[in-house]
Structure formats: C-alpha cells, structure tokens
Design a protein that fits this description.
There is one protein chain. By secondary structure, this protein is α/β, with parallel strands linked by helices. Helices cover about 35% and strands about 25% of the residues. It has 19 helices and 22 strands. The protein has a 7-stranded parallel sheet with strand order 19-18-17-20-21-16-22, with helices on both faces. Strands 2-1-3-4-5 form a 5-stranded parallel sheet, with helices on both faces. Strand 11 and strand 12 form a beta hairpin. Helix 3 runs parallel beside helix 4, helix 5 runs antiparallel to helix 10 and helix 16 runs parallel beside helix 18. About 5% of the residues have low confidence.
C-alpha cells in the first residue's frame, strides 16, 4: 500500500483531535506526518521533506503565519504547498496568510471532500513544478556535458547562461559571468565595436541571422583567444528576438541543449496556468499575454478568446492596473455575457531584461469572498450642524428594546451627522432612511431579497455575509457607530441560534474596537427566554436614555 501512496503530508496542529481527524481523511492515500507546534513543524520539514503541509494558524509557540513565512523564505522549502487551516474567516486573516506565502486556505469546521480536493490539486501542481525543475537541471547537465563552449546572451549582450566548459575556457566561475556584459568584459577593446555591430546585425535579421564567424575574446588572465562560433537567434513565443545562443562546432549538442533550455524557461508559465487562482499576465501595452483556466472560467471565456486582447475589452477603469505591486483593490470586469462582476484585484510587476514592464493580475470575485466591502464615508459637518448630546461608550453593543425604531435611527443619525463614520444595516428602504434622518453619505446595507442596481443588499438567507461586512467596516475606522435593524427578518429564514451566534461574533469584534453598535429589536416578536439570551451581555437602553 505504501508504494501506491501519492505523497507525504505534514499535519501541524496543537489539538490532537484535529490531527486525528485530518489523518483519518488522508491516511489511505498519503503518508502522514504530524507535529503539535510550529517549532516541531520546522524540524519535521527538515527531517522528512513533506510534499504538502496542512498548517494550523493558532499554536502555542509560534503562529502558523510565522512557520509559513519561514518555509516560503527558504530556497529548500519555498515550493512546498502550504494550506492554512483556521477558524478565522475574515479577509484580513486571509490577506495575512497570503502575505506569509500560503497557497490555499481551509476554514474550520473541515469538510472531507474539500480537504481531499485541495490537497490533490496542490500536489498535482507541486509534481508539475518538480518535473520542470528536474528538466531544467537535466538541460544544464546536457550543457555541462557538451564538449564545446555554450553561451546565451540576451538582446543587450548580457550573459544569461554559460556551461561548465565555457567557464573552464574563460577561467571564470559561472557566478562571476552570469549577469555580466560579454563585450565589455570578454572582448578586446580593439574588436569591441565591430563585435557589437555584428551582434546587433544578427538580432535585427531575426531567424535569418544565424551564421558562423570568429570573435576574439579574453580569458581571466587577459589572454586573447579566438574561436569559431556558430550562432542562432532566440525568439520568444510571439516571434520577438530576445537573445543569441552561441556554441562551438558540435551543432547536434547545441540544438539538443537549446531545446532543454527552452522547456526550462517555460516552467513558470506552466505553473501560472495550473494555479488555483485566476491569473492574467499583461504586456507593456496592457494586452493579455497569458491567462489560466480559472481566469477564463471566471470571465466566461475560453483561454484563446482572451489572449492578445487589450484588458480594456474586459474591464472598466483599466488605469487602475498600474505597473506596480498592489494588493486588494476593486475593479469592475465584464463576463462574456455582459454581466458586470466586481473583482478583488492584486498585481505584481514584471520587468524584462530589456527594461520593458509586464504585469501579473490576480482576480477574485468579491461576491465570493463573503460579506460586502464597505467604503467608510462621513457626513459633511458644518457650522449649522447641531451638537449631539448622545453619548454611547465605545466597545459595546446597545440594545434598543422598543416597538418603534424611530429613536434608534434618530440617535444613529445624530452620531453620524456629528462626524462619526457610520454603517446602517436596515430592513427599511435606504432612500427613506436618508430622507427622513438627513443621512447623505453614510453607507446603508438593505436587508432585502430584491437586488437593486447600485444598492448594497443582503438576502435573509445570506446570514453569513453580515458579520464580515460589519468586521470589514469596523476594522477600517476609528470611533464609529453601527446601527442594525431587521433581526426579526433574519430569524424568519434562519434558526434563532444561528442569529445569536452572529450577534455574539459581532460583539467580540465590537468589544475589541473603538466603535459601538446599536441593535434595534422589537421584544414582542421574541419569546422571553430568547430575548434574555440575546441581550444578556449587551447594555440595555430605552428610547429616553439614548
């Protein structure tokens, strides 16, 4: 059985029950190793070299984020896939995991099918990477076994590759030569301009520029040597000339080595295409150069329909795609059927040897990230704005126990019109709330089954979206206020305990913040026991005391 297992999985969790659960899910297909803490995990990685790691976030010695960052910072372990296993589900926690280098996330409670699917998917990518690295190393072995000097120059004449024989002939180590200018360092002054001119002529002729000629060069002892070179221009996938392969007389060995090098240079493209994240790459004119299947599926196209097209064909405000490293900003993209989808976008800058810039673009459908992303806005405060006498201490949820919610809204409007950032989650029509209480800019989320263009809303069946919406807002501001009205509406489509868990989770976030929250509830719609359970850790306020 062991010989048929697909790989080695390291499970890291300080809770033995969680380890046993994950082991039960995976033991029949994978060899399992376990660790109960971050330090032990690093030791197990060194000793057993796992193929994938399931890593808990919260541990007694060092956190999973620190373990992940350490492993991803090492050349030996940076390509081991790491799945963060956590009970934390906020966007901030996921961003923290991504910054540490995590490849994927699993949220507790764990699902057996999801675990096996995620592990299998990342192991397939890992195996692809290992195969490509092996092919690259094999290509280098071919070069080193060649009995002639083999050299690769980019379009500026910079040495990008040299084999062992070439290092021996020149008297320099490979590290000393890689990245150096061939003409300035290895061609005698008297021949330098002629050599550069011949080199540029070859590149300008493209594939027709292959040929033989002699070039004098200097070795490490400054001795002039002359060899007969054979040259072939290297073109990229679009036919653009990007370098020159220089070899000796053995043409067969040179062509075989060239093929191996080309395959090695493509391994990063293959990794991007296999990535579980939706990824596009753009050239310096913002045209799509590559797109993986996830990106194509997200936009509703085939991959071939995206390639070579300007990104503006698929998105609004493409000026936001600056040639820079940027994290988590919003853009509207359009599917093949014309549907507008708000995406969470991150970009990474690429700089070619020629100096031209490219861009890697990672996309996520924001609606799938759970919750609504709120942009905090404050009301205009002028000299004629009345001073509020309302005082609600930060770090608490205040429950307003009255049939008529007007006083709660009046209190909320006074706080936001005094300059506090606010968020209103309401069952009432937002336009009526704005008109009645003089709220112009404060974001309002409508609890409704109607999806109205331009209005942020949450369905009663989307209970899971409410906490991340509030948490996202509270984490962005200081000294804010949240009003939530419509708990009775949520209870109609959800069991009461689920609603209680939502409020308790929200309370934890409010207590740790500099904001406060007003919860409007009609006590007549709840049983006495339910109402007591709801308000037991809140501050109770009446209409007169607010």
């Amino acid at each position: 059985m062991d010989e048929q297992k697909k790989g080695k999985v390291l499970i890291v969790d300080d809770e033995s029950m969680n380890v046993r659960l994950l082991e039960a899910y995976l033991v029949h297909e994978y060899e399992i190793i376990s660790a109960s803490g971050g330090i032990e995990a690093l030791e197990k990685v060194e000793a057993h070299k796992p193929d994938i790691i399931l890593l808990d976030v919260m541990m007694p010695d060092i956190t999973g984020y620190e373990v992940c960052k350490t492993l991803k910072g090492s050349e030996k372990t940076r390509f081991i896939p790491i799945i963060m296993v956590t009970a934390l589900s906020s966007l901030e926690d996921r961003i923290k995991g991504i910054e540490a280098g995590a490849d994927d996330f699993l949220t507790k409670p764990l699902d057996r099918i999801e675990i096996k699917t995620r592990v299998g998917s990342l192991l397939r990518i890992k195996n692809l990477h290992d195969e490509l690295i092996a092919e690259r190393d094999q290509a280098q072995n071919y070069l080193d076994l060649a009995g002639v000097m083999l050299l690769v120059l980019d379009e500026k004449g910079i040495v990008r590759l040299i084999n062992r024989k070439g290092s021996e002939i020149l008297g320099y180590s490979e590290d000393e030569m890689i990245g150096s200018d061939w003409f300035d360092n290895y061609v005698p002054d008297i021949f330098r301009e002629d050599a550069k001119e011949g080199f540029n002529n070859l590149l300008s002729q493209g594939s027709a520029g292959n040929g033989d000629f002699e070039i004098p060069f200097l070795n490490s002892k400054q001795q002039k040597r002359i060899m007969s070179w054979n040259n072939i221009v290297i073109n990229d996938a679009e036919g653009k000339t990007n370098g020159l392969l220089v070899s000796g007389e053995d043409i067969t060995e040179r062509l075989e080595a060239e093929s191996k090098i080309r395959r090695a240079n493509e391994y990063m493209d293959n990794l991007l295409k296999a990535s579980p994240i939706a990824i596009l790459s753009l050239d310096d004119k913002r045209k799509i150069v590559t797109a993986n299947k996830n990106a194509a599926d997200l936009l509703g196209y085939d991959v071939g329909e995206l390639i070579a097209k300007p990104i503006r064909n698929f998105a609004d405000e493409t000026d936001l795609l600056e040639f820079a490293d940027k994290k988590d900003f919003r853009m509207d993209f359009f599917t093949k059927h014309g549907e507008k989808v708000l995406m969470n976008v991150s970009t990474s800058l690429l700089v070619e040897n020629s100096g031209k810039q490219g861009l890697i673009v990672a996309l996520q459908d924001r609606s799938r990230l759970r919750g609504i992303f709120i942009t905090p806005l404050t009301e205009d405060v002028g000299e004629d704005t009345p001073n509020t006498e309302v005082e609600l201490e930060s770090g608490y949820i205040y429950i307003s126990e009255c049939e008529n919610p007007e006083q709660s809204y009046q209190t909320f409007s006074e706080l936001v019109r005094s300059g506090k950032p606010g968020l209103c989650i309401t069952r009432q029509n937002p336009d009526k709330v704005r008109n009645m209480y003089g709220i112009a800019k404060t974001p309002i989320v409508w609890l409704t089954k109607n999806k109205i263009n331009g209005q942020q809303s949450i369905d009663s069946t989307e209970l899971f979206k409410i906490y991340p919406t509030i948490a996202d807002f509270v984490n962005k501001i200081d000294d804010g206020v949240v009003l939530m009205d419509g708990l009775e509406y949520l209870i109609l489509d959800n069991d009461f305990l689920s609603v209680i868990k939502l409020i308790e989770q929200t309370n934890d976030t409010i207590m740790a913040s500099s904001s406060r929250m007003v919860l409007q509830v009609d006590p007549n719609v709840l049983e006495k026991k339910e109402f007591h359970l709801l308000k037991r850790w809140m501050r109770s306020v009446s209409g007169d005391s607010i």
